[in-house]
Design goal:
By secondary structure, the chain is α+β, with helices and mostly antiparallel strands. 44% of the residues lie in helices and 18% in strands. The strands form 3 sheets. Strands 2, 4, 5, 6, 7, 9 and 10 form a 7-stranded mixed sheet that branches. Strands 11-14-12-13 form a 4-stranded mixed sheet.
Length: 590
């Protein structure tokens, strides 16, 4: 917890000052406060929190019996105090008595009343335990914790001393957004038959036992016009080869099956004639049109009765399910025998008769690149997925047109994985991550490559937890690498190392350093063709840990071309044994 200690607030640069007389006296006498464990390197967790569990050792006769000892741990980068933590306050016997007297007689408010400790004998050595949790500012990658020590009330002066307490060191974090591996999907162009099929129905009304169509009856004209509008584009399309067109008529279940079947067939033939009179049908297609009948049966009657809540609907259902052999004449005989037959005949025999039609056709395939590009401008609806993907490939070099093709594919084939993935990548390249997400959201399932791209969308939105969830399910080398980057970002270092190790690049070396596999990190970087400042810094860290001073200084100088790494080097605990070497300052100044 940060405290305000107004009487010892230090300006930048005061930390480390040993000029006051009390501090000088202590140093000369060999009496200095120390802290254990030493050395102590603190690594912040994923929330940037550090836990300090320290013991301060105060030598004998360090504190006069009339003094108060105040130890204030501070977070320091370079010469700048970045944060200040809860102080330790210890009163020698005389000082404690005087403070209590002032509180009682003068109403003095001691700012340390709740945290001060009392000594019975200040002449003996003693220890002070210190436990504190703190959050390290986000911009700090390496820092120091030093304790400022002051004596207050000695009657002569206030001395300032400093105690090196710990080093704060964060593993070098990968730049997840920069290093995230995306996968562009390159489809193989395969020529496939383009077989299409469709179906529709017209709900028509006929006079009883008649099959000729009266356009003025009911909604007949609109129903027939809808059938023509559906079939005409196929029948007249020069790119289409119709392979079948079947029209089926239906008649009421009331009456004999044979009679109704013939009536239904004639009604289908009437619908065919209507179509032939209004559409220019090629002779070879005319020969393919067939007519037939389908028994409507009694099931629609039962459905209408059930929807109406009729009490005898279950009896009708029982008859239908019991007498399933042969045609529906047997069912009709039993249904006519029901007491509700007149009610069924009056209210539940359907007035509309359906004419159903089904059709199949093939579209001409386009195999020549020039033809593909030409036909795309005129008839994108005549393309299959493979052909449209080929057109997208041919648009390379024109990002805007490529995106337009992928949007066309999504219009006609919304579940195409390649189009969704590559369109999302193009949006991400432009920084339009919301549109990238929208391109992927239309999919009902995800290939591993697309799952990886979706995870990238969450990474760019800083939702690393969701990205990790997605990448766990993506069986893809790039996805495993990306998951390793995110584990490193979360400071789950053992998991990051296991995931990144096979890839032998700078991030693999960083992961190796994070789990103290220093020789492995060095060997990776010896083979890596990467001379970026980060790579050079990793080389210098590995060299420092392995005691190779020459390699350390060779790589530290180019690493310090990056101001952030130069600032980090100033507080990097691994470089402490080398700071007295003149080459260290030279490397930082290079």
């Amino acid at each position: 917890m940060k405290q305000s200690v107004t009487h010892i607030l230090l300006a930048a640069g005061v930390v480390g000052l040993l000029g006051a007389c009390a501090a000088s006296r202590q140093s000369e006498a060999g009496r200095v406060i120390t802290a254990t464990p030493s050395p102590c390197v603190l690594t912040p967790d994923s929330a940037n929190r550090i836990d300090m569990d320290l013991t301060f050792h105060v030598p004998a006769r360090y504190l006069s019996k009339r003094a108060r000892l105040i130890i204030v741990p501070q977070l320091v980068t370079g010469d700048t105090v970045r944060d200040e933590y809860t102080p330790l306050v210890v009163d020698a016997p005389v000082y404690g008595k005087k403070t209590t007297r002032r509180e009682v007689l003068d109403g003095y408010a001691d700012p340390y009343r709740d945290s001060r400790r009392s000594l019975d004998d200040s002449r003996s050595a003693f220890t002070l335990s210190y436990k504190e949790s703190a959050v390290v500012p986000e911009d700090i990658r390496a820092a120091r914790i030093r304790a400022v020590v002051t004596e207050d009330g000695c009657g002569e002066c206030s001395g300032i001393d400093t105690v090196d307490v710990a080093a704060v060191s964060l593993p070098i974090e990968p730049d997840v957004k920069k290093d995230f591996k995306l996968v562009w999907m390159e489809p193989e162009f395969v020529v496939r038959p383009k077989i299409r099929e469709g179906r529709g129905e017209a709900h028509l009304q006929f006079a009883i036992n008649q099959y000729l169509i009266d356009p003025a009856l009911g909604n007949n004209r609109a129903e027939l016009d809808s059938m023509v509008a559906t079939l005409q584009p196929v029948l007249e399309d020069s790119l289409a080869t119709v392979t079948s067109l079947d029209i089926y008529g239906m008649a009421s279940a009331d009456g004999s099956y044979a009679y109704n079947a013939a009536l239904a067939r004639n009604r289908a033939a009437s619908a065919r004639r209507w179509l032939q009179e209004r559409v220019d049908i090629r002779p070879q297609v005319e020969r393919l049109i067939s007519v037939g009948s389908r028994p409507e049966g009694w099931w629609p009657v039962y459905e209408a009765m059930r929807a109406d809540g009729h009490p005898d609907s279950l009896e009708v259902k029982r008859i239908i399910e019991t007498y399933t052999e042969g045609n529906d004449d047997v069912q009709e005989r039993y249904i006519r025998a029901l007491p509700c037959w007149n009610d069924i005949r009056t209210n539940y025999l359907q007035k509309d008769r359906k004419v159903e039609y089904t059709y199949t056709y093939t579209l001409r395939s386009f195999t020549d690149d020039a033809e593909l590009l030409d036909m795309y401008t005129r008839r994108p609806d005549a393309f299959n997925e493979d052909e449209l993907l080929r057109v997208a490939v041919l648009m390379k070099g024109d990002e805007e047109r490529m995106m337009e093709v992928y949007r066309t594919i999504q219009h006609y084939f919304p579940q195409n994985q390649v189009a969704a993935n590559n369109l999302a990548l193009l949006y991400m390249r432009r920084g339009e991550t919301d549109k990238a997400r929208q391109a992927l959201d239309v999919l009902e399932s995800y290939d591993p490559e697309v799952l990886n791209t979706l995870a990238a969308c969450y990474v760019y939105a800083d939702d690393y937890e969701r990205a990790v969830e997605l990448l766990r399910d993506a069986e893809l080398p790039q996805a495993r690498y990306n998951l390793g980057l995110l584990k490193a970002k979360q400071r789950k270092l053992d998991e990051a190392y296991a995931l990144l190790r096979p890839y032998a690049d700078v991030n693999s070396a960083i992961a190796a350093l994070s789990v103290n596999r220093n020789e492995e990190a060095r060997d990776i970087m010896l083979r890596a063709d990467d001379n970026s400042p980060v790579a050079e810094y990793v080389r210098s860290l590995a060299a420092a840990r392995l005691g190779d001073a020459d390699a350390l200084f060779l790589h530290l100088a180019p690493a310090c071309a990056d101001p952030r790494l130069k600032a980090r080097a100033g507080d990097e605990a691994d470089f402490d044994p080398y700071r007295a070497d003149p080459r260290f300052d030279a490397a930082l100044k290079n």
